[in-house]
Write a structure and sequence with these properties.
The structure holds 2 protein chains of 2 kinds. Chain A is an all-alpha fold. Chain A has helices at residues 2-12, 26-53, 56-87, 96-116, 121-135, 138-148, 168-200, 205-210. Chain B is mainly alpha-helical. Chain B contains 2 helices and no strands. Chain B has helices at 9-14, 19-57. Chain B starts with 8 loop residues before the first helix and ends with a helix. The chains are: A mainly alpha, B mainly alpha. At the A-B interface, helix 1, helix 2, helix 3 and helix 7 of A face helix 2 of B.
Chain lengths: 211, 58
């Protein structure tokens, strides 16, 4: 689905009247930043489950999802930066949307560093969950930054509630790219969490029997 | 909607001078995602091997 979306967007979607072919970066940039935020939201839900109900698996899922979130946020920032040089004439701007996304990337790295700095893994899980919940405040800031502040970054072009401002010939490949990247990241998440669960539970009988 | 937006392969690569940027972004993105899959698969294999060795020795 991802290959179909990207092939459609890169080869068949028409040129943009203003941006020419540079806009084709959208089929990687927009799905990346959508999932950069969704993965964080998923981690926050897991963090609450771990803090409130002491669900061990929830902490394992946070630890497995954080590197994927960091990677996809980096791809979002990099693709935005390269798109920026073509459309705005600058690689970087301390604009509200871009800065809050950079903070999200730093949060992902901070969560991983915090967890890695404790030898007591149960304590690391708990503190990591607290940090994830604190960092959740950044997600609505990223989403609303283009409305709250005057930014170089344009407002959202697509909306879940409808009223998208882009032509269907560009919108459909974009939707395919979003759904395709979603499935790809879910597969990656399942693989990563599987290896992390095995690592953490390696002394348990069920793991020995399963492997 | 399904007409190729370019006339030939060179145009696809060049994209009116934007090709180097567009293809670089996609190459880096695909490489990072692909590498993440390889790392995840290797980790599973490594931990499974460790557990099997531990099972065999106990």
């Amino acid at each position: 689905m991802l290959i179909l979306g990207w092939a459609w967007g890169l080869l068949f979607a028409p040129q943009d009247a203003v941006q020419g072919n540079s806009y084709r970066i959208i089929f990687l940039h927009v799905p990346s930043v959508i999932f950069a935020q969704l993965i964080y939201f998923f981690m926050a839900v897991c963090a609450l489950m771990h803090l409130v109900w002491r669900v061990k698996l929830a902490a394992y899922l946070i630890k497995s999802a954080a590197p994927i979130g960091a990677m996809i946020t980096f791809i979002g920032l990099l693709s935005g930066s390269i798109w920026g040089i073509l459309t705005w004439g600058t690689w970087w701007q301390w604009d509200a949307r871009i800065t809050s996304t950079l903070i999200l990337f730093i949060m992902y790295l901070g969560i991983l560093t915090l967890h890695g700095s404790f030898s007591n893994l149960e304590k690391a899980d708990r503190l990591m969950s607290i940090l994830v919940v604190i960092g959740l405040v950044n997600i609505p800031i990223i989403k609303k930054s283009v409305d709250w502040w005057s930014t170089l970054h344009q407002p959202a072009s697509i909306s879940v509630s409808g009223g998208s401002s882009i032509d269907p010939s560009m919108l459909y490949p974009l939707l395919f790219s979003v759904i395709g990247l979603g499935f790809t990241l879910i597969s990656l998440g399942i693989l990563s969490s599987r290896s992390y669960i095995f690592t953490r539970e390696k002394n348990k009988k069920w793991v020995s029997e399963y492997v | 909607m399904f007409n190729l937006a370019f006339d030939n392969f060179n145009e696809i690569l060049d994209m009116d001078g934007h090709g180097i940027y567009v293809w670089s972004v996609y190459s880096i993105g695909i490489a990072m995602i692909f590498l993440s899959f390889l790392i995840a698969k290797k980790r599973i294999k490594d931990i499974q091997k460790k557990i099997r060795i531990k099972n065999a020795s106990s």
